[in-house]
Amino acid sequence: MAELDTLDIIVLSVILLGTAAYFTKGKYWAIEKDPYANGFASAGGPKAGKTRNIIEKLDESGKNCVIFYGSQTGTAEDYASRLAKEGKSRFGLETMVADLEDYDFDNLDAVSTDKVVMFVLATYGEGEPTDNAVEFYEFITGEDVSFNEANEPALGNLNFVAFGLGNNTYEHYNSMVRNVTKALEKLGAHRIGEAGEGDDGAGTMEEDFLAWKEPMWTALAEKMELEEREAVYEPIFSITERDGLTPESPEVYLGEPNKMHLEGAAKGPFNSHNPYIAPIAESRELFNVKDRNCLHVEVDVSGSNLSYQTGDHIAIWPTNPGHEV
């Protein structure tokens, strides 16, 4: 009888393990890797240009798909780039990635029905928009929102896709994508597929994104009559050699944060996209022990109109002395 009891326990254990493995596959193990996941993925198109008119930008660049991102830490921007790359390689879409703060949105009603607008929106803090999405969010959810055209409904021609990045440990989970989707649909826009929601709190952001995008692509292909093709590599830029340039040429990039810094014309307002290069006013060593040392550093931000508070980040832009390189 004791042998029978032991056998029963072994059989039950195998059944339980098999059941657990079945229900956790794809969540905790055997997770499918997205072939378009690349921290340095190409945006699939140019970023924001000089014009703030998205219609002009789409027409000038020959694009039919724009992916707007609202990002605080860069994750939403990365997902937007991956969507652009995948849309281009799998379906031949002419895609571009765009920062929400680089464009005006009173002409969204002029986006034609043969184009699609995607929104990848992170929720920041207690249900707030990210810094670069504040103006868009206030505009699209405002009670007196108005557009350039006299369409009825206002956004009846707009086809859109939406994915949100949130954290279920906060009260207003994924409020950005939920509120924006609600506002767009209220204005008559047509949502393609479900509005996806990724949950960083559960640690399933990547899995949620992968699970959302496949049915989204299916719905988008049906709506826009797209045919999936074999993925091929298509470079989005070419390299032209310029023999007349030297390291001392003023237009040669040597690590400057952006074009304005390269041209020596940096000016405010300063933000994450246009950083202020603050000089170190004072630096002294507080202590030095076997495995670490501690420095007291004072950074001069006078004249920048920047303010800071506890928890803010500072980036280090090191340069090597020319005679040591």
TrEMBL record:
Q: What is the lineage of its organism?
A: Eukaryota, Fungi, Dikarya, Ascomycota, Pezizomycotina
From which domain of life does this come? Eukaryota
GO cellular component annotations, sorted alphabetically? cytosol
Residue limits of the Flavodoxin-like domain?
Answer: 65-217
In alphabetical order, the GO MF annotations are: flavin adenine dinucleotide binding; FMN binding; NADPH-hemoprotein reductase activity
Q: Which UniProt keywords apply?
A: Cell membrane, Endoplasmic reticulum, FAD, Flavoprotein, FMN, Lipid biosynthesis, Lipid metabolism, Membrane, Mitochondrion, Mitochondrion outer membrane, NADP, Oxidoreductase, Steroid biosynthesis, Steroid metabolism, Sterol biosynthesis, Sterol metabolism, Transmembrane, Transmembrane helix
Task: Provide a GO biological process annotation.
Answer: sterol biosynthetic process
Q: From the Swiss-Prot or TrEMBL record, give the protein name.
A: Flavodoxin-like domain-containing protein
InterPro entries assigned to the protein according to its UniProt record, in alphabetical order: CysJ-like_FAD-binding, Flavdoxin-like, Flavodoxin/NO_synth, Flavoprotein-like_sf, Riboflavin_synthase-like_b-brl
